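Hi support team,

I'm filing this because I wasn't sure whether my run with zinc ion finished correctly. The job status page said complete, but I'd like someone to confirm that the output block is well-formed before I use it downstream. Pasting the exact inputs I used:
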Amino acid sequence: MLVTLFHVAGVCSLFGTPISLSSLKLTYRSAMAASVRIAIVGDVHDDWNLQEDTKALQLLQSDLVLFTGDFGNENVEVVRSIAELKVAKAVILGNHDAWSTQQFAERRKDRVQLQLECNILSGLGSYVNDICGRDWVFGGGDHGDPDLARAISQLKETTKLSIPLVVFGHMHKELAYGNGLRKMIVVGADNTIYLNGAIVPRIKRLVADEQATNSKTLMNNETSVSTPNAIGTVRAFTLVEISDGKLKKIAEAWVSVVGDKTALEEEHILYSRGPGGTEISV
Ligand SMILES: [Zn+2]
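And here is everything the job wrote out:
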């Protein structure tokens, strides 16, 4: 358990500095717990509301929340709001978090690249829809960072500890030019699971279905807050369940928040460990 969580946070902190991580508290809690649930909030891109996301996270009962960066285009208010979240959390910055001021441009390029590229790693495929594949150019290509791939393999060699899970964001699930959806999980040959949490946009509006008499609701893909008849939201998280130090289940979860009511609307299983110890990746 300790190892798993250490490496989840550790991979993030290799190149970027987590802004907030109650690591000691978390370690203590994890050591005592037989199971741990991690909620990943992928690239936020302004889709964050402290009250609503807090309610959703309460329903999910996560022990730790991981943020993969891209809060907005240097959206300090969103980052401040996330800092107020009263849950153990680890936060890493993305390229959009140094977007307009160009503080790290040109002459400090090396440093930027280290920070910006920290989220993804090479060697996981080069098709457009691969987990780190280029979807904005014809023919695709591997957009991963070889430095991070090397760092992870070096960590494995030198520490002799396994790294069951590597979490990152940056590569959005919805591909450019309407080319469909990206693969969000890869089980590596060494059994390390590479997980992309960048479900963007992560919020859908819930609207009243005027045709239905039982006031059913429909999910609307429009993210505009001005959607008429909006009665609430549905918010995306990627959930990781770890039991006795082993990954048990990974799922994309959509939680509805309507006033004070929350419910799990959709759950797409990405990985589950079968009853006979078989690992199934869906
Ligand atoms: Zn992004």
